[in-house]
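Async update (no meeting this week)

Hi team, since we skipped the sync, here's where things stand on the single-chain job. The sequence we agreed to prioritize is pasted below, unchanged from the tracker. I ran it this morning and attached the output directly underneath so nobody has to dig for it. Comments welcome in thread, and please keep replies under the output.
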Amino acid sequence: MALLDTHRRHHYRVLALSDQVEPRIYGPNLRHIAPNVDFIISCGDLPYYYLEYIVSILDRPLLYVHGNHDRPEERSGGVIVAEPPGGINLHRRVHRHEGLLIAGLEGSHRYNRNPHYQYTQREMWLLVLGLVPLLLRNRLLYGRGLDILVTHAPPFGIHDGADIPHIGFRAFHFLLRHFPPRYLLHGHQHVYTRTETTRTRLGLTEIINVYPFRVLDLDFAPPVSPS
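Output:
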């Protein structure tokens, strides 16, 4: 029998970001643009100094995955920073945060020999299958496998591109079919016009391209049965 998750609320406000330093965020109006957020999610390809600034101003937890362009940053005194300071890397893990079950998968489709944050379709399948025991455990404990999936790249055929670097991952569909989260948040695919689709419903999951940022009110209330 699943345990009652008494810490999960029905509604959360999240600042989600990816791929581009946004002047409206990296400036004095951040608290007005993103008021009362519960936590911050980075979908990758953002400078660590940018994420550190956001965390310092909003004073909220940061959960993130790496994008294919992420690299260590050199700070003053020759200090090398390889991860956003104070953040929680979600890659290949399920993190329980304020009652929510949140998993992450970093990187993009492989397009060159850089060893970091790029994966073939087969390699991503192996990463996804590695999450399955954790998701099955969640289902036994909490009655569900996952609430939010955070990725850099989108699923194959949804918000992705036709060129090799921007092709989505097929393995994500396995997670959406067998362990459907309420939300999948991703970046990677830049959005240049208002006519581009950035929110798509697939089964029980709403897939959202957060580029360059979105303030999201995420709803986890159970559906109301018709009387």
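Quick observations from my side:
The helical segments are 30-33, 48-58, 121-142, 171-178.
The domain at 11-219 is CATH 3.60.21.10 (Purple Acid Phosphatase; chain A, domain 2).
Reply here if anything looks off.
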